[in-house]
Records
---
Amino acid sequence: MSTSIESAVVLTVRGTLVPQSLEAARSLHNETAGSEQGIAGARALGDLSHNVYAPSKRSKQSSAKDGELLFIDRWDNPKGIMDFFSNPHVQGQAGKMFSARDATIWMPARGSFSYCLSAPRAKPDRFVGLIRATVQSPEQAIAIFAGVDAKAQRDARKRGLVSHELFVKMSAPGEASPFELLGIDVWCDFAGMTEHYQDQTHMTGLGAAFAGPPQATVWEQAAGHWSEW
């Protein structure tokens, strides 16, 4: 699968923090990438949205650890991301925030069963469930997910699912890395999310999509006021 350089994409940045506390990381973030100047620079290159998540300490289904942080950004084109991170100033800021990080660009999985629903007013909390795995064939994996996701939609919504999207890793020119798939679920109910991910009626069928063990993580809105857009 391929995508046009003008296509909208998602950027995930998962990293291990240099600051010794989440509050210190929040302060650094808001003074750098989250400052008015930082936001304006990112937006000028096509960064449409930026959200910050911390590992969910309540979840027993997640491999995310204390001291990590997750950024999920929506860009209107992948070239803007490359231009943004080629800036030495931006690279220096990233070095102050993360001792190690994985930044990956993802394109929407064509043919996937993806959807976004309105969140109930009474449930303002947000939780993110990610599943990432290598696949032999993106088309085959997307078809497997679509079959499972279509059948699970009603139960998932009843349990608090707000949106479900599937993406395929966008490799750099000349890169020969394995195909990877990323699922992003946004929930407004932690208990419902946990119940759904434990429901083997829906989850078992996804196993055939993966070429190796999937990496599942659960995240929640980071405490305190983080600059988001």
Note: The chain has two domains: 9-107, 115-221.
---
Amino acid sequence: MEHNQLVCEDARVLANEGVGPRLFVVSLESPRIAARLQPGQFVHLQVPGMPDHILRRPFSVFDCDPQAGTLDILYQDLGYGSHRMTDLCAGDVASQIGPVGHGWQAPTGTERALLIGGGVGAAPLFLHAKALLAAGVAVDVVLGAATKAALATYDAYTALLGHAPVVATDDGSFGFSGFCTQPAADLLAAHAYDHVACCGPEPLMRIVAQMAADAQVECQVSMERRMACGVGACLSCVVDTTDGKRRACVDGPVFESSKVVW
């Protein structure tokens, strides 16, 4: 996939709603970026109202409508910047750079794919699922979360797939009781997949990468790193790979899991 030309755009906030415990979805009117964005790419957002923080923050794109010129970001209220985002209201404007990075790219001829999202890692897989389904690929989805209330993407995936995704919750409040690695392993044992994609906590991706390798299935992971510039200049987001150090922002965030040095 060739890198799209980066755009710096003032995005207008359309809505900013709570969707779970400390989970929010902000909808942005950003037509130039929405028209260029590929599944798995992200935006580098300048959170307004933070003059003492000059660095932008990277956010994966959950959903995108190029025709409407809009995109949705699922985020978690974890720190100063993300907490400030919860105050954004319709009509506010936020500067963002995008689309950034190398996204998902299933192998040519893929007929069946397994997508595994842990926590907010389910968000950057959603557009990938859309694209695969549009291409006629059979898609199975496994979602993992701490609790039922934290399954913020469950309804969206159910509507997209036409049936409920496989779910695991740490506390057993919904679906499989435990981590989503077990349902993923069960599906890998039951079906012949051509492609596995995973995003979530690094221990989850490391385990999925090994399971896919054992099953001899191609696998891609989206590596999250703290970023300063977000455009490949500062080298603050390096990922160790078998090809040397690579930048998560522009060489990733999606990498072949077999090339990541875990």
Note: DSSP finds six helices and 16 strands in the chain.
---
Amino acid sequence: MNRELEIARKAAQAGAETIRSFQKNRSQMGIRSKGYRDLVTDADVAAEKVIVSVIKEAFPEDHILAEESKVEVEFTSGRWWIIDPIDGTTNFAHDFPIFCVSIGFWEAGKAQAGVVLEVNRKEEFYAVKGSGAFCNGERIHVSDRNEMSECIIAAGMPYHTFDEEESYLKLFRTLLHNCLAIRRPGTGAYDLCSVAAGRFDGFYEYGLQPWDVGAAALIVEEAGGVVTNWYGTKEWLFANRMIAGNPAIHPELLSLITEYVPEEVRDGSVKAGQGFA
């Protein structure tokens, strides 16, 4: 997968440069809504175009699943690139300086390589299946903390739908009283990479899309972490719900979610390998 990783890194850098060009002239950003509390900017569209161009030049026959041009997909076969040109668009649109380019390469339904580039700090997280995880060339690993009272947990906050808020708030309240701190940078890809780097000890969220996690979850796994859906199984790409953490904290998060979140809420809306519309 060295060639795929090389192209993913090249594409991520090209996307980041496009984003930075919009940052220099924010009046041309073109912020608009594509749904309830779901922003898109001209930078998202332009960065995605550049990223896809780099990938298609190297691998013209490969398939693309990208946030701003999503299609129905079948992941049980073929070569797929999962792209989020700006993970953290709301942050970007409001000049909050944490947002990422995320590019994952999948083959035959399995994650093979992933790159997450945090644009402002220029932190490049990447991994290839079976080869470990890295940030700016240095190997990274999940934390070894095993007491929840010593842990920082990243908790994704719902903002599209509030049907599940009561159980979510019960879970949040319990963590608030039992962990060291809760953080929410506003980008799932960055949350996951922070777990991989040992900055956060665990992460959970619902409302996630494949492009939010298609690269970063592999980076967590290659850093020695555990990634599952809210049932504790590995079908997480389309599950809409994810738990990630070091090997000691992941089971505690799963146990709390099982205790506080009803089964019908824990159930993801799309099963592994099925299409996304």
Note: The chain has a mean pLDDT of 89.
